[in-house]
Design goal:
Layout: H1 2-31, H2 58-73, H3 76-82, E1 91-94, E2 98-99, H4 106-123, E3 127-128, H5 131-145, H6 151-161, E4 165-178, E5 181-194, E6 200-213
Length: 214
């Protein structure tokens, strides 16, 4: 009789333990972060529309780059010098874009350069020197001339790479605060410079504003 009571007590304890574990697991699942998938190809196509901060997100970068490159592809330089070229395709190289803001934008700058490179490659009428190939040479120029290489150094590097033109520029931001509102106006300034003559063949700037009200 004593053994039967002990066995029932153990089973009850085990059952209560299982129920408690199940409740704890359900509670944990209920408090777990909820992840949403959105964008093209999902039911939540507008997920990327909302801005989460005043920082640059992918949508901002796409806009800034698209505005600059749309102006570039419509420029007289592109139409008269590039599209009418009958010789070997002109080679372009893309130098780092200077981050002239107070924000830490390493990932965004990498994305920005990749977007410019992709657009030029996909134009089908110019050659683009791989940024990986030129990275070691650029680092060497930086060691010699400091954080920013000057026009002479850039031209010298372009010649070593065999490029006819190089793309350069800077990303700036005006940061304004008024009471509980903060607004950042980002500007992407791009130039296309002829390596041989250091002549500016094209330049343009696009602006994107973001505001945060606390």
């Amino acid at each position: 009789m004593h053994q039967l009571a002990t066995s029932r007590s153990r089973k009850l304890t085990t059952s209560l333990g299982l129920v408690l574990a199940l409740l704890l697991m359900m509670n944990a699942l209920g408090c777990a972060p909820k992840v949403s998938r959105g964008g093209p190809g999902t039911s939540n196509v507008r997920l990327d529309e909302a801005a989460l901060s005043t920082g640059l997100d992918r949508k901002d970068l796409d806009y800034l780059v698209d505005q600059n490159l749309a102006a570039f592809f419509e420029s007289l330089f592109w139409k008269n010098k590039i599209l009418t070229n009958t010789g070997d395709e002109p080679l372009f190289t893309i130098f780092p874009i200077k981050n002239d803001t107070s924000e830490h934008l390493e990932d965004q700058m990498h994305t920005l350069l990749s977007s410019i490179e992709t657009s030029l490659v996909n134009s089908g009428v110019v050659g683009v020197i791989s940024r990986e190939r030129q990275q070691e040479m650029i680092q060497e120029v930086w060691k010699q001339d400091g954080e920013d290489f000057d026009m002479a150094s850039a031209a010298s590097l372009g010649k070593q790479l065999g490029a006819k033109y190089y793309v350069t520029g800077k990303l700036g931001a005006v940061d304004e605060r008024l009471k509980k509102v903060r607004r950042l106006q980002y500007t992407l300034f791009l130039q296309v410079i002829e390596v041989e003559t250091s002549r500016v063949r094209f330049q343009f700037e696009s602006v994107r504003s973001k505001a945060l009200k606390k």
